[in-house]
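Moderator note: this is an archived Q&A kept for reference. The question asked for a predicted structure of one protein chain; the sequence and the answer are reproduced below.
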Amino acid sequence: MKLILTHEVNGLGAPGDVVEVKNGYGRNYLLPRGFAIRWTRGGQKQIDLIQRARSARDIRTLDEAQQVAGRVNALTVRLKQRAGEGGRLFGSVTPADIADAVKATGGPELDKRRIEIKNPIKAVGSHKVQVRLHPEVSATIKLDVVGS
């Protein structure tokens, strides 16, 4: 099955890429979640639109990505969340929360879709979160979650 990706999918591609996947994966996972649309000959206009939007928000060069990574690695972000008595959070920390906290701390503006949280953050304390800035560059955010 040939699809056009509308979102970044780890191990598959970036928005605007045309990929060939197995029918079940495309039909049962990518299409229902809105990660892809079916490829058609007339879909080239959609591909151009998606790639133009992606290039506007992507970090363009490797040098720029390394500079942003240096700034992000130097940051320690403090995030206040509602927590119970045992230090357990009401809910969990989302990538959008992290991106807003980085910006409020004085760091660069990050795309929430590029923040990778391996295990859900559901407790107060220190955590490390990966950010993919460029295909070859990733940075680590030191996150201190504090109960409020």
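Archived answer notes: Helices lie at 23-30, 44-57, 62-74, 95-105.
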